[in-house]
Design goal:
Blueprint lengths: L6 H21 L5 E6 L2 E6 L7 E3 L2 H15 L2 E5 L5 E6 L3
Parallel strand pairs: 1-4
Antiparallel strand pairs: 1-2, 2-3, 4-5
Length: about 90
């Protein structure tokens, strides 16, 4: 073999860099649940998602669903007003 690293060692290092970066990007995502106005109703949406998790006729029902998800994932519930502003935040994190 030539001086320096073997091709196997180089390949292992490339995989380590790839998987470490992949792991870091997953950690940056949160499970915070937003209760937002949606099409004449209310919806629960995970922070960062465009798609909604669930749709509800009443805000109280959406809040109940968001709370159960937030408790499961130890995250927060962010409740929005009809105008879109934040009304309240409930934390279930550690």
């Amino acid at each position: 073999m030539a001086k320096g690293k073997s091709w196997l060692r180089t390949l292992i290092e490339v995989f380590e860099v790839f998987f470490n970066d992949l792991h870091k990007s997953k950690r940056g995502r949160t499970w915070h649940q937003h209760v937002v106005p949606y099409e004449e109703a209310w919806a629960v949406r995970r922070e960062g998602n465009q798609r909604i998790t669930s749709k509800h006729r009443k805000q109280s029902t959406a809040i109940r669903k968001a709370k159960s998800l937030a408790k499961k994932y130890k995250s927060d519930v962010i409740i929005h007003r009809e105008s879109g502003g934040i009304r309240d935040r409930i934390s279930y994190g550690e």
